[in-house]
Amino acid sequence: MSRGSWRTTPLPNGWGRLRASVLMRDPICRWGVLPGEDGPCHMPSTTSDHMGPPDDHRIEMMRGLCDPHHRRRSGRQGQAARTAQYRAQKFRPKEPHPGFIREG
């Protein structure tokens, strides 16, 4: 896990080479390729983004993004995770009080 990162899955060995390959393939930010993204962007790509699960490191599942769009995407993903966690806690079935004796 890189310093200062909130990643929940570790990056693979050879991440630097993979990242460089993605940035070489996508020199311009590919924001706008996925649904819900306004685009296209014409800024240079500076980061490598996973378009699918965070542990799928196949080069075809990655794209180059500019820093502002990578921060925006990461922020959206973080907010979605926090919302899912909140909903899971809020709508969890109520546990009976430990002193309640159920008959039958």
Structure description:
- The structure is a single chain.
- The chain is mainly α.
- The chain has one domain (15-90).
- 34% of the residues lie in helices and 8% in strands.
- It is elongated.
- The mean pLDDT is 84.
- Name the shape in a single word: elongated
* Series of H and E elements: HEEH
Give the fraction of residues assigned to helices: 25-40%
What portion of residues belong to β-strands? 5-15%
Oligomer: single chain
Count every helix, treating DSSP H or I runs of 4 or more residues as helices: 2
**What's the gyration radius in Å?**
20 Å
Give the neighbour order of strands across the main sheet. Answer: 1-2
Whole-number count of domains: 1
Q: What would a concise description of this structure say?
A:
By secondary structure, the protein is mainly α.
Task: Sum up the structure in keywords.
2 helices, 104 residues, single chain, 2 strands, mainly alpha, elongated
Helices and strands, with pairings:
Elements: H1 15-25, E1 47-50, E2 62-65, H2 67-90
Antiparallel strand pairs: 1-2
